[in-house]
Amino acid sequence: EVYLVESGGDLVRPGGSLRLSCAGSGFTFSCCPMNWFRQAPGKGLEWVSSISNFATYINYAPSVRGRFTISRDNAKNSVYLQMDSLRAEDTAVYYCAREMPTIEDATDFWGRGTLVTVSS
Amino acid sequence: DIQMTQSPSSLSAFVGDRVTITCRASQGIKNYLAWFQQKPGRAPKSLIYGASSLQSGVPSKFSGSGSATDFTLTIRSLQPEDFATYYCQQYYTYPWTFGQGTKVELK
């Protein structure tokens, strides 16, 4: 069975940095592009970033471009989100999700999320 | 960016009812449309991709239709476990965008 487990969420001050991790299991990690999404408290879902199977293609939401960096290590079955210059509006639960192996860009499995709080 | 607009924002229904949620894209997205279900405190669950293809393990009482700009999610015979918030999402082009959500509540 496919599992995705996020970690690294914490309370951080505005302007600070944080690195989120997402560990996958139950599938061949290199099969699939991976994504980060987020959900601010009481709000809807927002796509954050995507990375292709071997990190050839990377995309970011305009709201995080230049501040966040996505990466992956297929040998460690993990995808990461380095978040710099954090702002209060980055406060959210961050989810990682994998794209389906045979259906481009459609996600299927999501992790349970990790909470990032940006506050002084 | 492509704007996704869902309607209604919320609805009340009885157990056993059939409900339909609509999602409109601000420009054509072919069939690059997904539907998600989210319960309070839980991660989103993928229901449908490609506008009408059911994810593995999702009951057939969920169905999706539409293409280009107008899409629907239909839930037949609502059960207590179906009361949740539903989101549509386009993945036709970056940045991927979601509708604002439709909360389905028990009447």
Write the topology of this structure.
The complex is a heterodimer of chains A (120) and B (107).
Chain A: E1 3-7, E2 11-12, E3 18-25, E4 34-39, E5 45-51, E6 58-60, E7 68-73, E8 78-83, E9 92-99, E10 107-110, E11 114-118
Parallel strand pairs in A: 2-11
Antiparallel strand pairs in A: 1-3, 3-8, 4-5, 4-9, 5-6, 7-8, 9-10, 9-11
Chain B: E1 4-7, E2 10-13, E3 19-25, E4 33-38, E5 45-49, E6 53-54, E7 62-67, E8 70-75, E9 85-90, E10 97-98, E11 102-106
Parallel strand pairs in B: 2-11
Antiparallel strand pairs in B: 1-3, 3-8, 4-5, 4-9, 5-6, 7-8, 9-10, 9-11
The poorly predicted ranges of chain A are: none
Query: Helicity range of the residues of chain A?
Result: under 10%
How many distinct beta strands of chain A? 11
Question: How would you spell out the order of helices and strands of chain B?
Answer: EEEEEEEEEEE
Distance between the termini of chain A: 40 Å
Q: Biggest sheet of chain A: strands, sense, closure?
A: 7 strands, mixed
Quaternary class: heterodimer
In round numbers, the mean pLDDT of chain A is 97
Using a beta-carbon cutoff below 8 angstroms, give the protein chain pair with the largest interface and the number of residues from each chain.
A-B, 21 and 26 residues
Order of helices and strands of chain A: EEEEEEEEEEE
Mean pLDDT of chain B: 97
Give the proportion of residues in helices of chain B.
under 10%
Distance between the termini of chain B: 36 Å
**Biggest β-sheet strands, sense, barrel of chain B:** 7 strands, mixed
Q: Compute the gyration radius of chain B: what is it?
A: 13 Å
Overall geometry of chain B comes to globular
Beta-strand portion of chain A reads over 45%
